[in-house]
Amino acid sequence: MQLWYAPTSPFARKVRIAAHELGLSYRIGLIKVDPWTDKRLRDLNPLAKVPTLVLDDGRALYESALICEYLDAHAETPRLYPASGTARWETLLRQGLADGAAASAGRLFAEQRKPDAERNGGMEARFKAAIDAALDALEQDAPVHGEPLIGDIATAAFVGYLDFRFPGTGWRATRLKLSAWYDVFSQRPSMKATEHPARI
Ligand SMILES: N[C@@H](CCC(=O)N[C@@H](CS)C(=O)NCC(=O)O)C(=O)O
């Protein structure tokens, strides 16, 4: 399998963390691309987004949530998704929340890089509100330590992306449980092996 990825993408990182946790990293070759400029990506994925996973038979899968579920289903011991019941819906909801917040963070970063005259203050405020409210919700129902589920991995990818793109924003001050959880989680080999590059 090949994972087309960008080192700055929280969604690609989520997939890489999941692959690592499932013991599947060794089966996945990494193809680094810039999704905005690499023309080959759209032939694999009409949306031209990373992550895109190319299977050994040439079929391509996209959307990080789907790729993670595919990897889990093909792991020796699937374990990122509880089979049924509340635990399943809770972790899927947490994944949805963290993915949505990561998308808002990505859009905020892109907005803030525009020349001042092109920036949209209203949209920036909306992205910030989504990020803040998501952090509050994750603090209210902070992840617990143990074998990580997909919601925990998505949360770590989101928080890691915040630290990467918006260092020093002080989100931790009012989210002590989430912060303490992340400090431990970020020491896992899966997190160390997938760190975002030095700020670019
Ligand atoms: N919902 C998608 C989001 C993927 C995504 O937005 N990836 C960004 C990089 S972080 C991308 O490839 N953007 C290029 C584009 O939007 O054209 C997922 O979970 O995989």
Describe this protein's structure.
By secondary structure, the chain is an alpha+beta fold. It folds into 2 domains: 2-73, Glutaredoxin (3-Layer(aba) Sandwich); 85-192, Glutathione S-transferase Yfyf (Class Pi), Chain A, domain 2. The chain is built from 8 helices and 4 strands. The chain has helices at residues 10-21, 40-44, 64-73, 85-112, 121-140, 150-165, 176-185, 189-192, and strands spanning 2-5, 29-32, 52-54, 60-62. It has a 4-stranded mixed beta sheet, covered by helices on one side. Helix 1 links the parallel strand 1 (2-5) and strand 2. The longest helix is centred in the middle third of the chain and has 28 residues, at 85-112. It starts with a strand and ends in an 8-residue tail after the last helix. The mean pLDDT is 97. Glutathione (GSH) is lined by residues 6, 9, 11, 35-36, 48-51, 63-65, 99, 106.
From the structure above, extract its key features.
4 strands; Glutaredoxin; 8 helices; globular; alpha+beta; binds glutathione; Glutathione S-transferase Yfyf (Class Pi), Chain A, domain 2
Strand arrangement across the biggest beta sheet = 2-1-3-4
Total number of distinct structural domains:
2
- Helix proportion: 40-55%
- The radius of gyration over CA amounts to 17 Å
Number of strands: 4
Distance between the termini: 28 Å
CATH class value of the largest domain: Mainly Alpha
Structural class based on helices, strands and sheet pairing? alpha+beta
